[in-house]
Design a protein that fits this description.
The structure holds two protein chains of two kinds. Chain A is α/β, with parallel strands linked by helices. Helices cover about 30% and strands about 30% of the residues of chain A. Chain A has a five-stranded parallel beta sheet, sandwiched between helices. Chain A has a four-stranded antiparallel beta sheet with strand order 2-1-4-5, with helices on one face. In chain A, strand 4 and strand 5 form a beta hairpin. In chain A, helix 2 crosses helix 3 and helix 2 runs parallel beside helix 4. The longest helix of chain A is centred in the C-terminal third of the chain and has 17 residues. In chain B, about 85% of the residues lie in helices and about 0% in strands. Chain B has nine helices and no strands. The longest helix of chain B has 30 residues. The radius of gyration of chain B is 18 Å and the shape is globular. At the A-B interface, helix 2 of A face helix 1, helix 5 and helix 6 of B.
């Protein structure tokens, strides 16, 4: 397994004059996992976005190292998968098209239809692969988001409220995904749910600084 | 090689989306038809000369572009897919892809306006076609480049409908003045050498806008 490490050093985030969190220090070495817990408004989703590189910290730094090399922030998207209920897919595209097109934009390589089919089947969506995502329920859309996040087998997987909108089978699916991810790479779960937090080996609580 | 494939994927995504939704094409098409018809009815049997024709041509292109080119980023913001894009591609790749889409849309727009003007106005004769073709090509790239970065800037704003043309006009004034001057020369039958200065200005505008936009886009796109 390739060496990997996620390090947050002195991370602080302020919006206007309101400090969301400060002095966040995290180190996860692969394989490993961390749950980010805290009350509503403590900044769990904000921290997840900062780790993903789509939001800048007010101060501090985030480093993702793979094979001993630091991945620049602008390249971090290639090496991570991100799932959350507030992520939006393209309603006018089918499930298969969403996975294919988004992966082609990420890597420059269109995945083979067979690979996309296998992934959607693993998500329980084989019968709906050619249906437009706009016709899907929120739980089905969440499953497509997992397919998009996992198609490139990312070293780092970030899940924000991972079982939101999912039924019992979906929750079991996510449990398998997290178990595999934390044994092969890095897993970060932002959650209010104690059961989801228990899937991770370690945890940090926001709002207690 | 990878970057080029990623950019192609961004273009492919937008083209497929547009073919299914037809938002931009319908908006541009209706705007062009409406404005050209309005100009035609207003002029009735009058035959305007090269200068007013050049001005009317680019006015239609400018306002049609304002109605359609902002969608490349505004639509992503409106339906919440901006975060999805931030998580799947780099700012440089995304901007390049969106720019190419807007260049294609602008070329489609200028082609449509040209055809309509040739049909509607007997005095709209391309007496020096090489000047006209180069002007339209460079002008389209210039419009697309400025429109794309402005679209990214205003996409998150509240009153983006008003803000967009207000921001666009001062930035596009040099472009508008130059394309109108070059187009007038093309319609008057001026020799190619007389338009070299205008074409150089257009090429310089395109280079500056594209280079500046690439440098600026990362700061605009990432919070």
């Amino acid at each position: 397994m390739r060496p990997m490490k996620l390090t947050l050093t002195g991370v602080q985030k302020r919006f206007n004059r309101r400090t969301i969190f400060q002095k966040i220090e995290i180190e996860i070495r692969g394989p490993g996992s961390l749950a980010v817990v805290g009350r509503n408004g403590s900044g769990k989703s904000t921290l997840a976005k900062i780790v993903a590189g789509v939001l800048s910290p007010t101060s501090g730094s985030v480093q993702l190292e793979l094979d001993g090399a630091v991945i620049p922030r602008v390249e971090r998207y290639r090496h991570l998968g991100f799932v959350s209920s507030y992520l939006t897919l393209y309603d006018e595209f089918t499930a298969a098209e969403n996975v294919s097109l988004l992966e082609a934009m990420r890597s420059g390589i269109t995945p083979l239809p067979a690979a996309v089919d296998a992934l959607l089947a693993a998500m329980g969506l084989e019968a709906r692969r050619n249906d437009r995502v706009g016709t899907f329920s929120s739980g089905m859309k969440q499953r497509v988001k997992y397919a998009v996040a996992l198609v490139h087998r990312p070293p780092l997987l970030i899940l924000d409220e991972p079982t939101a909108n999912l039924d019992f089978d979906g929750i079991s699916l996510v449990k398998r995904v997290t178990a595999r991810q934390k044994s092969e790479g890095l897993l970060l779960v932002a959650t209010n749910d104690p059961q989801e937090a228990n899937w991770c080996d370690d945890r940090i609580e926001l709002g207690k600084e | 090689m990878n970057g080029a494939s990623q950019i192609a994927a961004v273009v492919r995504k937008d083209v497929h989306s547009e073919l299914r939704n037809r938002y931009a094409i319908n908006a541009l098409g209706m705007f062009v038809l409406t404005t050209v018809a309005t100009v035609l009815f207003a002029l009735r049997s009058e035959s305007p000369g090269p200068a007013p024709l050049a001005g009317m041509y680019w006015v239609v292109v400018f306002f049609s572009a304002m109605s359609g080119l902002a969608r490349v980023f505004v639509s992503e913001e409106e339906r919440g897919t901006s975060l999805t894009l931030q998580l799947t591609t780099s700012p440089g790749v995304l901007f390049a892809g969106k720019l190419l889409v807007n260049i294609a849309l602008t070329l489609l727009l200028t082609t449509a306006v040209t055809v309509l003007y040739v049909i509607a106005f007997p005095t709209f004769e391309l007496k020096t076609p090489e000047i006209f073709v180069l002007t339209v090509l460079l002008g389209s790239v210039g419009f697309a480049a400025s429109a794309t970065i402005l679209a990214a800037i205003i996409a998150k704003a509240n009153s983006r409908g008003t803000l967009y043309p207000v921001l666009a006009f001062p930035i596009m004034i040099p472009l508008l003045m130059t394309v109108m001057s070059a187009t007038e020369r093309a319609l008057s039958g001026a020799p190619f050498g007389e338009a070299i200065g205008d074409l150089q200005v257009l090429a310089g505008y395109c280079l500056i806008m594209i280079a500046g936009s690439f440098l600026l886009f990362d700061h605009v796109w990432t919070e």
